[in-house]
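Section 5.1 Outputs to date
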Amino acid sequence: MSSVVVATGVDAVDAVRWNALRGTGFPFLRHEFLRALESSGSVGEGTGWQPRHLLLMEGERLLAAMPCYAKTHSYGEYVFDWSWADAYARHRVPYYPKLLSAVPFTPATGPRVLLAEGVELRDALAAFIPALREACERRYSSWHLLFPEPELAAACAQPGLLRRIGVQYHWQNRGFAGFDDFLARFASRKRKQLKKERRQVAEQGLEIRRLRGAQIDEAMWERFFVFYQMTYARRSGHGGYLSREFFHALGAALPDNLLLVVALRDGEPVAGALNLIGEDTLYGRYWGCIEDYAQLHFELCYYQGIEFCIEQGLARFDAGAQGEHKLARGFEPVITESFHYIAHEGFREAIDDFLQRERASVELYQQEAAQSLPFRKDGED
């Protein structure tokens, strides 16, 4: 007989057992990544992200795991429900705490349920979803599943779970032999513009390096943390969600999954972009700089990642959420999904009505955005 157990930290399961589950080729669900978040204080007490991971156990055997968090705010999620929280507040109904199955601060589509060999996704969900609904009836306003992989999304198309969609911009590897082969797909004017952007970076006296594993030493992590913090300071006036200790822990725990692209001026690092490497996908995550240089963001965050994917034979480059300017660089608009269980019947109906109307506009936007891609059309040079 199996049962669902709630773990208040990933260390409730040892790393070997956790990483033996199917789905941990997705780097953000590896034990090391989740533990780095927890051990560094980036999630946990005082952060509004309390780990409440679901474990499906059969005696001592771990059948499945679903990372989950009790949230007291909606920061760091990238599926925006602030208007829902405001509506609850206006009606004097508490929206927080809520439950969230997602990777903190990481809007990357991938697995959300990890499975032992021989365990089917439908069987794990048959245990997890009723447990989550029961928790919502007792303590939480709602449960939210963000950026699930397609198989999980299809399995969540069931009564009571509200589907929401969004758009991100992903680069797709069409078997390119090199960066110039990729550019050959562009219309002439747009191809020239991209080449001009890359030349401008070189003309500013910047040296670009890609660092892997042990090449990213303690001093470089310290420098990168400064870049990361400056990005948030410029955007929002406060520091980033992730602590200095997180980056050091990540570097020690998952060196083979890391690609840090840095720009140097006179030998000194002035900017950097951190990526995680999955089984077939490169994930662009964090970037920052101490000085503004023309086109440097595009070079570090997009063009270097595209070149790396082509060289390594990776199928896709997910460079992060938002950023309509990615279209002009050959990133294609793709639909992302999330699912939401709303315990309050009245709010469930209102949110469902909103999501149905929102879906129509998002689907139309995706179709229109695809027309803005820089690729040659029939008859064009």
